[in-house]
């Protein structure tokens, strides 16, 4: 009986995540973008908790994994796409024809990128790395950018071209083949190295001081890390090939 109740906890967190995403869509349509952005952030927190709670309580299941993936479609696919459109994409005044605008196409491309990213994740066997930027991070970049720009009273509609470029960049990073560290095993080891513990505490402290700014900076750094890892791997591969070629010359 107790086991069954514990089994429900991760799924309840996933349910909370998808409901936050759904309500965010409603608020986006009604023009309450700050509330919508914070609801997507709440989805992000709940999404991060459900999998970790399932692993800690040893209640992981195929049902939970599929349920979480479907929830992500709403919370980090549909919700951010609608949010982006209501924020500035609807003001991209380029009409393709009488019923289709460029803003709609860009918002749709973002959504499709999330779907492709999730499909790849569901068929991937890698545990240490994600292939492509995780879609929750894409949603975080979008919503935190809105919140921070609001804090400094900067109107993004004055920078439409840059905004569209960054939206497309996030979409491309999600469907890219760049490797991103998953952090799935972080904290699960019996002995955690002291510097990681110190770094985690330091992050928590500065996050409490200015949470939105710190989280946005961390999201940007993480988003760029995939590109850095890709460049490093290519450089290392070339170095190994070069070393082997030189070795063959002296054989």
Number of strands: 4
> Low-confidence stretches at least 5 residues in length (pLDDT < 50)?
none
* Count of domains: 1
Provide mean pLDDT, rounded.
83
CATH architecture: Up-down Bundle
**Helical stretch count?**
8
> What helical percentage do the residues reach?
over 70%
What does it look like?
With 251 residues, the protein is mainly alpha-helical. It has a single domain (2-249), classed as Four Helix Bundle (Hemerythrin (Met), subunit A), CATH 1.20.120. It is 75% helix and 4% strand. The strands form two sheets. Strands 1-2 form a two-stranded antiparallel sheet. It has a two-stranded antiparallel sheet with strand order 3-4. Strand 1 (95-97) and strand 2 form a beta hairpin. Helix 5 (135-151) packs antiparallel against helix 6. It is globular, with a radius of gyration of 21 Å. The model has no long low-confidence stretch (mean pLDDT 83).
Short description:
The protein has eight helices and four strands; from the N terminus they run H-H-H-E-E-H-E-H-H-E-H-H. With 251 residues, the chain is mostly helical.
Compile the SSE list and pairings.
Elements: H1 2-30, H2 33-56, H3 62-87, E1 95-97, E2 100-101, H4 102-123, E3 129-131, H5 135-151, H6 160-175, E4 179-181, H7 194-209, H8 211-249
Antiparallel strand pairs: 1-2, 3-4
Attribute tags:
single chain; mainly alpha; Four Helix Bundle (Hemerythrin (Met), subunit A); two-stranded antiparallel sheet; 4 strands; 75% helix; 4% strand
